[in-house]
Amino acid sequence: MKHMTLGSIIFLAAAPAIADQGFRIGGEVGFSHNESTLGDYTTAQVQFVGEYLFNQNFSLSAELGGLASTFDDYDVDATARLYQTFATGYIPVSQSVRLYGGIGYYWLDDEEVCVQDACFELEGSDSDLAAQAGIEFGNQGTWSFAAEYEYFDGDDTDGTLGFRFAYHF
After folding, report:
1. Which of 22, 19, 21, 2 lies closest to 10 in space, CA to CA?
2. pTM for the full model?
3. Radius of gyration of the chain (CA)
4. How confident is the model over 10-38, as pLDDT tens digits?
């Protein structure tokens, strides 16, 4: 056990630093299982992420993508476009690892519900506060990978657990 811990510390200390200023682009995939008045449903979230790092401790990001939900007990599917913005704070743990948390806003638009084969669009949109927290790992100073939790302050959504990747310019 000592050798494994010592080896992990040496690996983290020797790994290249995460880029700490400039633009980065990437993607995010997340999943959740939620409950609503119609029953349990599973949601998949896929997004394109654009972010500007002001320094190693602060960034602003915009995320564009979509959500797709499938209800477990019924033949009902729902999709929506998802837009998010975040102000994110980072805490470096080592040269290649940092913790982060952010607060922002989300918008769901162009919502569509399909019951069996009949689909219809819902009027209006949904928006509210969003939050994120995760751990990010750097690789070669240009790529980073993260595991994160995103929370949407909506009626039935508990949040998503996901994976994120980014390329730094």
Report:
1. 2
2. 0.79
3. 18
4. 344 444 456 578 999 999 999 988 877 77
Read off the CATH number of the domain in which 13 is found. 2.40.160.20
86: domain range?
A: 2-168
Q: Which two tokens stand for residue 143?
A: 């790529």
Q: Work out the pLDDT band at 3, boundaries 50, 70, 90.
A: very low
Query: Residue 15's closest CA among 138, 154, 135?
Result: 138
What per-residue string of b and e applies to 79-108 under the rule 16 or more CB within 10 Å gives b?
A: bbebbbebebebeeebebebebebebebeb
Q: Rounded to whole angstroms, how far apart are CA atoms 21 and 67?
A: 30
Q: How many domains does the chain have?
A: 1
Cβ atoms of 134 and 147 closer than 8 Å? yes
